[in-house]
Amino acid sequence: MHEFSAVSQMVELVLEEAKRRNAKRVLEVRVSVGKLSFLNPEQLRFAYKVLSEGTILENSRLRIEEKEGVIQCSKCGYKGGISVEDNPYYHLGIPFLRCPKCGGEASIVEGRDFSIKSIRIEV
What we know:
hypothetical protein PF0899 fold
């Protein structure tokens, strides 16, 4: 469950920033999650709830914005979106992606990220 690890790092960063700004509590954290990161939004929310308990993050809102994935084909040069079904095995490793145009090997250009976009705090 790499969601727990990802959220753990995110919570640490948010708490550091909140402390730096003398926050009494955190009201909302907005994150961007690339669909090709294969991070499950429900599992992210669960991990956030567990990890925020007993901190100034407790009862804050986690807003998750999903970002579409973009791939590029090494064979035909296609660059664009790809549809990937949800598969539990993708949480263990990134799947081998094929170009939707020619079937060639494709690499991920965008959509693997997990980043903090904004934090709302009460001071």
